[in-house]
């Protein structure tokens, strides 16, 4: 059946609906493109034949193949676009350096797109605040207090905060630290915000 | 040194600094920690909280954090040992110790620069005066003078020398006398171990002085005090005095809302003074189960005997409570019965010889469903703190117990209540089996009991607080069931397996059971001396010196040494 491969690609993304990025399915994409090429070639030859011999019974199959081609195109662009959206969300979640396992799942073009997105986001942030720059990826929700209480979930070693003091993050110790320093570590899962 | 003005000498000093909080693993410390955390949150004092379970944990935590912190606050640990010698800190580290363990080590009392004690100078401290223990050595300088008298005529010189020698002998004799007296004084001072005012109450006073006290903090202070009573750390007199102090605070907090009727929403927290029954967890259990599993009632009725069971049935019949009602969950009991339950029970218990079935305590009430007595919370949090689930380390349990005290974590509190019920039932069953099989043996100067490895629920008793609770219930039960008058006045030493792989047992000793007991425990020193004399492999890691860990093989020789020591 036509367009099965394209649906496979979409299903793969749909399975990981929580925003995770699966590996780039180069194989699947190539198969879809090959199918599209095959359909296009068949259509081309049928169109020529229909024109030359005036066979109007080929028009239906030409139309069918054309619809399949359009469907494949739509699926592939949806796949690529959804991946780009997920990669964009990663910048907001992880910061500008992505963990190695996530980068492994991106293809070369996506990596390039990511670095360009990073650049434009950085230049935008620099232009805010009257030329001083403002990091808008911090404080995604309005903060209630300057300092928050965090609990350490795994051993992370030493951690330096703005005034130069170093804190030892050992498992099951609790700390009362400035909010902006903790957000990164909370997202990474090293610290947990304790609400009492 | 003792701090006189807790606000100026402690709080103002740490307000702009970063502090390391080292907290021991008992409920009073957990409550004190919560109060201090809220105060620090108000004033945005950055801190790091590290739970410590024993002296080794304390040293490790100190070593890890000494580079980064100058100020350390120790809750319920550190007062009864020479801290500076144990930790060897730099000269600029300052320790604020809020500890209930007494006696306070004399070095900690007289050190002016690095150790600040957040302890009230009550009458019961009895610290020896400075001159009796410390003295500068000046007399060594005099012995050099004799060699300088070179050119004197020989007769005079001999007389002078004799005088000088006599004076030196006199000084040495005085010094030996002084040292002998000093040893005696220190021995008397450090012989008995006991507990002072709750740390949570001390920190609540700090909050009150800063006028930052809230009802939450008051409730935690009440829980800290009740913990001392439940685990039998303070005398009844002291408990009653402290309850009176707390009651003043409670009425002050409740007084604010008296002028407007019904002004507080039902979700607000209301603390009230209760003269309530001494039945553990009775509002979260059925009345019958609670009577069977509370130490006081179970020991008075002797519920491990058939006779005792019959007496219990009589007691319930006497009060007119149908068995069906009494076995139901307390919430579902008939309203008519619940109405004057306390008075009815008090009347009947007087007939059965239980004069103190009611005790002064506090209860809290917030929301439509949530009513807790202070002792309920203590049992729940203690069960969480010492839960024996497989993958939880001691610090995991500490954090869970810390969480359960917040009003938002009611499901954790209910989990704690369930664990506490299991623990109490296990304790009752163990007490019953120990008494029925005569596992308690009199060794002469004390009673001794050993829990074998195959005993059901023995894992629960590898934790110190649970084992101490078992000890106290067992001693009470024994006192009620034995006919030997001499044995009733003996203290109890109990051993239970702690770690089967490492082959160690945990040994605790508690003072004898009596109405007017002053709860002073001499087993700390006794255990130390016995271990030294037999060179047994012991670990004196716990902050209470009467709880030690011992290798199973050394058990018998340790016991023999203890018997000889105490006879």
UniProtKB/TrEMBL annotation, chain A:
The keyword Nucleus applies. It is found in: Chromosome; Nucleus. GO terms for cellular component: GINS complex. CDD domains: GINS_A_psf1, GINS_B_Psf1. The keyword Nucleus applies. InterPro entries: GINS_A, GINS_bundle-like_dom_sf, GINS_Psf1, PSF1_C. Pfam families: PSF1_C, Sld5. Keywords: Chromosome, DNA replication, Nucleus. One of its GO terms (biological process) is DNA strand elongation involved in mitotic DNA replication. Residues 53-128 form the GINS subunit domain. Residues 144-195 form the DNA replication complex GINS protein PSF1 C-terminal domain. Belongs to the GINS1/PSF1 family. This is DNA replication complex GINS protein PSF1. It comes from Gasterosteus aculeatus aculeatus.
UniProtKB/TrEMBL annotation, chain B:
One of its GO terms (biological process) is mitotic DNA replication preinitiation complex assembly. GO terms for cellular component: DNA replication preinitiation complex. Residues 134-163 are annotated as: Disordered. Signal peptide: none annotated. It is found in: Nucleus. Belongs to the CDC45 family. InterPro entries: CDC45 (IPR003874). It comes from the Eukaryota. This is CDC45 cell division cycle 45 homolog (S. cerevisiae). Keywords: Cell cycle, DNA replication, Nucleus. It holds the Pfam family CDC45. GO terms for molecular function: chromatin binding; DNA replication origin binding; single-stranded DNA binding. PANTHER family: CDC45-RELATED PROTEIN, CELL DIVISION CONTROL PROTEIN 45 HOMOLOG. Residues 134-151 have a biased composition (Acidic residues).
């Amino acid at each position: 059946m036509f367009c099965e491969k394209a649906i496979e690609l979409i299903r793969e993304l749909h399975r990981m609906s929580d925003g995770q990025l699966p590996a780039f399915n180069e194989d699947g994409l190539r198969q879809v493109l090959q199918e599209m090429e095959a359909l296009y070639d068949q259509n081309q030859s049928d169109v020529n034949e229909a024109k030359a011999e005036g066979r109007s019974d080929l028009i239906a199959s030409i139309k069918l193949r054309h619809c399949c081609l359009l469907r494949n195109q739509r699926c592939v662009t949806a796949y690529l676009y959804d991946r780009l959206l997920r990669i964009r969300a990663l910048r907001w979640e992880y910061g500008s350096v992505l963990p190695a396992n996530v980068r492994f799942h991106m293809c070369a073009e996506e990596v390039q797109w990511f670095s360009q997105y990073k650049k434009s986001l950085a230049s935008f942030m620099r232009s805010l605040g009257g030329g001083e720059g403002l990091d808008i990826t911090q404080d995604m929700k309005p903060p209630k207090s300057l300092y928050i209480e965090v609990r350490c979930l795994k051993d992370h070693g030493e951690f330096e905060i703005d005034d130069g003091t170093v804190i030892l993050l050992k498992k099951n110790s609790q700390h009362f630290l400035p909010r902006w320093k903790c957000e990164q570590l909370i997202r990474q899962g090293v610290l947990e915000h304790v609400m009492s | 040194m003792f701090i006189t003005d807790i606000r100026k000498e402690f709080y103002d000093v740490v307000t702009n600094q970063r502090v390391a909080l080292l907290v021991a693993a008992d409920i009073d410390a957990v409550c004190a920690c919560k109060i201090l955390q809220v105060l620090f949150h108000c004033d945005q004092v950055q801190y790091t909280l590290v739970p410590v379970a024993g002296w080794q944990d304390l040293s490790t935590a100190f070593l890890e954090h000494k580079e980064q912190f100058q100020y350390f606050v120790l809750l319920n640990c550190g007062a009864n040992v020479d801290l500076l010698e144990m930790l060897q800190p730099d000269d600029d580290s300052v320790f604020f110790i809020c500890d209930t363990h007494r006696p306070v080590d004399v070095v900690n009392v007289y050190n002016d620069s690095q150790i600040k004690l957040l302890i009230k100078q009550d009458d019961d401290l009895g610290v020896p005066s400075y001159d009796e223990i410390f003295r500068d050595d000046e007399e060594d300088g005099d012995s050099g003078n004799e060699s300088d008298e070179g050119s004197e005529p020989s007769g005079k010189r001999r007389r002078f020398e004799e005088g000088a020698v006599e004076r030196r002998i006199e000084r040495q004799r005085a010094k030996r006398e002084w040292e002998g007296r000093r040893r005696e004084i220190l021995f008397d001072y450090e012989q008995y171990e006991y507990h002072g005012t709750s740390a949570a109450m001390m920190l609540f006073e700090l909050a009150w002085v800063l006028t930052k006290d809230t009802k939450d903090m008051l409730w935690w202070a009440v829980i800290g005090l009740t913990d001392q009573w439940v685990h039998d750390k303070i005398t009844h007199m002291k408990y009653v005095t402290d309850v009176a102090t707390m009651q003043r605070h409670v009425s002050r907090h409740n007084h604010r809302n008296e002028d407007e009727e019904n002004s507080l929403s039902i979700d607000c927290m209301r603390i009230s003074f209760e003269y309530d029954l001494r039945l553990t967890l009775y509002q979260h259990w059925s009345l019958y189960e609670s009577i069977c599993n509370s130490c006081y009632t179970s020991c008075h009725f002797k519920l491990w005997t058939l006779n005792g069971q019959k007496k219990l049935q009589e007691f319930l019949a006497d009060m007119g409570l149908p068995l069906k009602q009494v076995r139901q969950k307390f919430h579902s009991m008939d309203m008519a019965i619940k109405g004057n339950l306390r008075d009815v029970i008090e009347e009947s218990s007087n007939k059965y010889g239980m004069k103190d079935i009611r005790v002064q305590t506090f209860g809290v009430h917030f929301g439509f469903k949530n009513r807790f007595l202070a002792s309920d919370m203590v049992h729940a949090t203690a069960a969480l703190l010492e839960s024996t689930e497989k993958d939880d380390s001691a610090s995991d349990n500490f954090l869970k117990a810390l969480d359960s005290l917040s009003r938002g974590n009611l499901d954790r509190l209910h989990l704690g209540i369930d664990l506490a019920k299991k623990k109490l039932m296990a304790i009752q069953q163990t007490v019953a089996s120990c008494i029925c099989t005569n596992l308690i043996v009199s060794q002469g100067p004390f009673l001794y009991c050993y829990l074998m490895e195959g005993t059901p629920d023995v894992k629960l008793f590898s934790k110190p607080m649970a084992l101490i609770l078992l000890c106290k219930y067992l001693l009470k039960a024994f006192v009620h069931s034995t006919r030997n008058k001499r044995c009733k006045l003996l203290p109890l030493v109990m051993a239970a397996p702690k770690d089967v792989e490492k082959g160690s047992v945990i040994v605790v000793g508690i003072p004898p059971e009596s109405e007017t007991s002053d709860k002073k425990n001499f087993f700390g020193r006794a255990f130390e001396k016995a271990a030294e004399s037999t060179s047994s492999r012991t670990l004196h890691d716990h902050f209470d010196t009467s709880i030690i860990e011992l290798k199973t093989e050394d058990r018998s020789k340790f016991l023999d040494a203890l018997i000889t020591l105490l006879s």
